[in-house]
Amino acid sequence: MNSNTYPSDFDDFFNEFKDVTPIKNANVVQTARNGDSLAKQLKRKAIAVEQNLTNNYLSVEKVEPVDPYDHLSFKQDGVQDGVFKNLRLGKYKIDSVANLQSLKFEQARSQLFIHIMNSHQRGDRTILVKHGLGLHSKPFAAFLKSYVNQWLTQMPEIIAFHTALPQHGGNSAVYALLKKNQQQKSHNREIHSKR
């Protein structure tokens, strides 16, 4: 290496980087301060579940018995016939499944209530509720199925339901259609106002 060219090259090199500032303490990792810890998230979820359980208004009183092989069907006023037909024919994507089979009565009541509330909050539109046939249930056949039939009509979040197709459980399950949540309604209003 020529000693005469070295300082000049070196000076040129430093001149190219004269406006560069060094990085400060690169060994420090920044973390989000306002992000919730997992423990806080779990605690908040447990409180919400507990609140849902205490707010559970699903009836435990007398129920109108249905036959294990009865088709269940319900539609609120205002639900379009085409929408109900598509539900009945299983044409909507199933967003979630509430499996109540083999649960005790109170567990099934709580599970159904929480599942529907959470599904509605998430924005699910169609859920599959598996209640079973209850051929040998006590005190009468189709005990849980009879209550599910009653409970779904008591929830304002459910606008329609119908017995499922054989591939989804047939007479032992129903498709339930949930109304849009507030966020989905606002989104629809925005879309229609832009037209």
From TrEMBL:
Highest taxon listed in the record's lineage: Bacteria
Pfam families on file: Smr
Residue ranges constituting the Smr domain according to the UniProt record: 98-179
NCBIfam families in UniProt: endonuc_SmrA
Gene3D superfamilies on file: 3.30.1370.110
InterPro entries in the cross-refs: Endonuc_SmrA, Smr_dom, Smr_dom_sf
GO molecular function: endonuclease activity
Keywords: Endonuclease, Hydrolase, Nuclease
Name this protein carries in UniProt: DNA endonuclease SmrA
Keyword Nuclease on entry: yes
